[in-house]
Amino acid sequence: MSAHGNTYVPRSRLAKWFESRLPIVGLVHSSFVAFPVPRNLTYFWTFGAILIAFLGIQIITGVWLAMHYEPSAKGAFDSVEHIMRDVNYGWLLRYAHANGASMFFVAVYVHIFRNLYYGSYKAPREVLYILGVVIYLLMMATAFLGYTLPWGQMSYWGATVITNILAAIPVVGDTIQSLLWGGYSVGNPTVNRFFSLHFLLPWMIAGVVVLHVWALHVTGQNNPTGIPIKSSKDAVPFTPYATIKDVFAVVVFMILFAWFIFYQPNYLGHADNYVPANPAVTPAHIVPEWYFLPFYAILRAVPSKLGGVILMFSAVLILALAPWLDTSRVRSCNYRPIYRQFFWVFVAVCVILGWLGAKPPEGGYVIASQICTAYYFAHFLVVMPLVGLFETPTPLPGSILESVTGPGKQVGGSGMPAGAAAAPTTKG
Amino acid sequence: MANTTAAAPAGAAPQEGTRRDFLFLATGAGLAVGAGAVAWPFVASMAPDAATIAAGAPLEVDLSPITDGQIVNVFWRGKLIFVRKLTEKEITDMKAVPVGQLIDPAAADTRVKKGHEQWLVVYGNCTHLGCVPIGHSGNFEGWSCPCHGSQFDALGRVRRGPAPINLPIPPYAFQSDTKIRIGEEGGKAAA
């Protein structure tokens, strides 16, 4: 980059003084201004920015809600109603937080499936990818803890069902359960510590996000062709190209978010959670939030309690093995005619599992859950290794530039800094 | 012998261990013990506290107002407990069930206290994932769980999965014919 005169050079004496003591402006410049991104990125590559936006929204609305929330079995439900009725704009903070969690998961699922389609998990991005799986696990834990806090019927019984799942772990299960409960059942100590942990985990997510972005800036971004940047003409500078595109995508996504907040604030929730927690009565139909439904279906697919628990956790952890299970030398599904079809079958199976997770566990639904669960694991353990070995990929373009302009065309182009398009960044 | 030790001065020294090795091991051991000692209070503080344990003291339940066939909910240690007065028909029906065919085999007399066959005391959370089964429903004169369809008979024995075991019996003892004490078995307080 320095060859193109694109490194941050402090101009003023103050900036020089500061940069020689803490080179943070230079770090930001090289990471988010001059950083080369493939010129063919689509809007599927804006979901990282959308996710960071939602982490921020969740933390800010969450901190503000915590100013009014009371983490106790007696006070929790009433304090949430107090937020809704008495606190100025409390309804907005709470609806933004509750729907923000759902939007967070919408974005993360697009982000994950984009990753799987374009083979972004493959070498050299394995560590980057596994950090993403870690973030996803932390998100699930945070979302579960947060859902228990309003202390309605679904909160209470969701907490009961999930902590009972942990008790199925051999040897240490009961101890873990007791340490989570802080008593002999889900109760006042439970909601108190769940609040504390719900406040802690987002900061851990933020920490892993820093590592995730760091790793991304070491390997560089993947792109729809899956082939790496070979020359400066394959790339454009992060600012303004990716910055503006990311901001635009975030704004568009906010329209969806705002629609939920202002028009359908309770659509993704459960009416039962507006009934205060009652340990003597179970809601007729306990279902988790929509983003957990596929895993809930997997949990219930096996008649054995421990078996279901093992399968459910494996379903998430097997994601982390994808870089080694996929034997193909080609990353992007654009050039993998066979695997591309299996990919869409896999997406369909995940959606069907989600639908099954919301159904009562009886008859045909259980059988369908079992078939889909088997396919889910077969995709990773059978399809990924075998298709990679036997498939003949279609020809890859010679470069990212060629994939954009067509083969053999001369481009005077807007590649990295040499071109006119990069001029804004050099003005410093 | 003297010759060999003199011939290998460099090789002999490490066998004794240096002061540096000692410091390394001692520091490492100190760190491990220290880390454990610091971690312990943090973990232990998450266990049920003294107030919670105190609130979990044995609970006396007066049985006299309970009528035939009635199920009464009581809470002990935050856990729901069903106290059920069985009817004569239920007692006879339950004794007729072949024990060997049960999912979690338990003879009728192991589910109640001797001399008090009318009284069933069981935890009120399904052994699958902890939902509360609905009384007087299902096909076995007992409970059925609304969550995942488990069914229990009049003695709280699981008759249809996915629940793996019978509704557990809490520790309790009869103080008199009309009074039980939950949390104590034969004069001993439960842990």
From TrEMBL, chain A:
<feature type="transmembrane region" description="Helical">
    <location>
        <begin position="337"/>
        <end position="358"/>
    </location>
</feature>
<keyword id="KW-0813">Transport</keyword>
<keyword id="KW-0249">Electron transport</keyword>
<dbReference type="InterPro" id="IPR036150">
    <property type="entry name" value="Cyt_b/b6_C_sf"/>
</dbReference>
<feature type="transmembrane region" description="Helical">
    <location>
        <begin position="92"/>
        <end position="112"/>
    </location>
</feature>
<dbReference type="InterPro" id="IPR005798">
    <property type="entry name" value="Cyt_b/b6_C"/>
</dbReference>
<keyword id="KW-0679">Respiratory chain</keyword>
<dbReference type="GO" id="GO:0022904">
    <property type="term" value="P:respiratory electron transport chain"/>
</dbReference>
<feature type="domain" description="Cytochrome b/b6 C-terminal region profile">
    <location>
        <begin position="228"/>
        <end position="398"/>
    </location>
</feature>
<keyword id="KW-0472">Membrane</keyword>
<feature type="binding site">
    <location>
        <position position="217"/>
    </location>
    <ligand>
        <name>a ubiquinone</name>
    </ligand>
</feature>
<feature type="transmembrane region" description="Helical">
    <location>
        <begin position="306"/>
        <end position="325"/>
    </location>
</feature>
<feature type="binding site" description="axial binding residue">
    <location>
        <position position="212"/>
    </location>
    <ligand>
        <name>heme b b566</name>
    </ligand>
</feature>
<dbReference type="GO" id="GO:0008121">
    <property type="term" value="F:quinol-cytochrome-c reductase activity"/>
</dbReference>
<feature type="binding site" description="axial binding residue">
    <location>
        <position position="111"/>
    </location>
    <ligand>
        <name>heme b b566</name>
    </ligand>
</feature>
<dbReference type="InterPro" id="IPR048259">
    <property type="entry name" value="Cytochrome_b_N_euk/bac"/>
</dbReference>
<keyword id="KW-0349">Heme</keyword>
<dbReference type="InterPro" id="IPR048260">
    <property type="entry name" value="Cytochrome_b_C_euk/bac"/>
</dbReference>
<keyword id="KW-1133">Transmembrane helix</keyword>
<dbReference type="InterPro" id="IPR005797">
    <property type="entry name" value="Cyt_b/b6_N"/>
</dbReference>
<dbReference type="InterPro" id="IPR016174">
    <property type="entry name" value="Di-haem_cyt_TM"/>
</dbReference>
<keyword id="KW-0408">Iron</keyword>
UniProtKB/TrEMBL annotation, chain B:
<comment type="similarity">
    <text>Belongs to the Rieske iron-sulfur protein family.</text>
</comment>
<dbReference type="GO" id="GO:0046872">
    <property type="term" value="F:metal ion binding"/>
</dbReference>
<dbReference type="InterPro" id="IPR005805">
    <property type="entry name" value="Rieske_Fe-S_prot_C"/>
</dbReference>
<comment type="subunit">
    <text>The main subunits of complex b-c1 are: cytochrome b, cytochrome c1 and the Rieske protein.</text>
</comment>
<keyword id="KW-0408">Iron</keyword>
<dbReference type="GO" id="GO:0051537">
    <property type="term" value="F:2 iron, 2 sulfur cluster binding"/>
</dbReference>
<feature type="domain" description="Rieske">
    <location>
        <begin position="118"/>
        <end position="181"/>
    </location>
</feature>
<dbReference type="InterPro" id="IPR014349">
    <property type="entry name" value="Rieske_Fe-S_prot"/>
</dbReference>
<keyword id="KW-1003">Cell membrane</keyword>
<keyword id="KW-0411">Iron-sulfur</keyword>
<keyword id="KW-1015">Disulfide bond</keyword>
<keyword id="KW-0813">Transport</keyword>
<dbReference type="GO" id="GO:0008121">
    <property type="term" value="F:quinol-cytochrome-c reductase activity"/>
</dbReference>
<protein>
    <recommendedName>
        <fullName>Ubiquinol-cytochrome c reductase iron-sulfur subunit</fullName>
        <ecNumber>7.1.1.8</ecNumber>
    </recommendedName>
</protein>
<dbReference type="GO" id="GO:0005886">
    <property type="term" value="C:plasma membrane"/>
</dbReference>
<dbReference type="InterPro" id="IPR006317">
    <property type="entry name" value="Ubiquinol_cyt_c_Rdtase_Fe-S-su"/>
</dbReference>
<keyword id="KW-0812">Transmembrane</keyword>
<keyword id="KW-1278">Translocase</keyword>
<keyword id="KW-0479">Metal-binding</keyword>
<feature type="transmembrane region" description="Helical">
    <location>
        <begin position="22"/>
        <end position="43"/>
    </location>
</feature>
<dbReference type="InterPro" id="IPR019470">
    <property type="entry name" value="Ubiq_cytC_Rdtase_Fe-S_su_TAT"/>
</dbReference>
<dbReference type="InterPro" id="IPR017941">
    <property type="entry name" value="Rieske_2Fe-2S"/>
</dbReference>
